[in-house]
Write a structure and sequence with these properties.
- This is Thioesterase.
- The chain is an alpha/beta fold and about 300 residues long.
- It has 11 helices and 8 strands.
- It has an 8-stranded parallel β-sheet with strand order 1-2-3-4-5-6-7-8.
- The two termini are about 20 Å apart.
Length: about 300
Amino acid sequence: MLPIIDAHHHLWDLGANRHPWLQEDPPPAFRYGDTRPLRRNYLPADYRRDAEGQNVVGTVYMEAEHDPTDPLRETRWVHRIAASHGLPQAMAGAAFLDRSDAAAVIRAQAAMPLVRSLRHKPKGVARPQDYDPAHRIPGSLRCPAWRAGYRHLADSGLHFELQTPWWHLPDALELARDFPGTLVVLNHLGLPADRSAAGLAGWRDAMARLAEAPNIRVKLSGIGVPGQAWTPDSQAPVVLEAVRLFGAERCMVASNFPVDGLVAGFGTIMGGMRAILAALPEAAQRRILAGTATETYRISL
């Protein structure tokens, strides 16, 4: 069984830290539905139990929407967890790019040994038919204040973790071209939740244009569809299309656990990814399962 670097997972201790989306009522709307099953501690022992048998040899922690008043507190907590439990080997922290303290927070995050990237989910519209390339929604990818904070990433040496639906990928392409020195890691395949013919065509076109930017990487993750079983047959079209567009050298697998546990088990997802990728040459499989993440997040095992 080829080794895996899980490029995107979460941990949380709801007794020690504040995560508003997991602790406040009513629960926020979420693409997978009810998030209340996630309202429990999820620590390294829980992750290892879920990942058992999948030959996961390293992991990357993704910021988990910790208390926005103190993003560095989450980073320090993750470093303590890593020192005590041996994972994660790298992490993505949080920074709020449209705030006045963005530059200071980016510098502080960059000084932390495990931090390789930062995430701030940009605002946008909920439906592709509402997308307007001329928009300047506050907090969006085209927002001047948001982009003013983003430019500090180039000096920090950190990557940017982008989570946005596919209809905002034209904005992401513009961002990548305007800041070619910053690597952008697209989370969750651009969220291709609409698997209708029209939905997949829109997603495919947006991804094809995004692939033109060399400073983009893609996480093959977070693609569960509520009410549908996670199977290799159902997920192969989007996974293999992303690999075709970006190449194995720019793609990496990730579990998005425990969040994706709302739609499927860890073994179902990672075993399914192995099955989908099995038709590719072994070198490409190794790259997607571990090599791209190892390089992107500078992981030394």
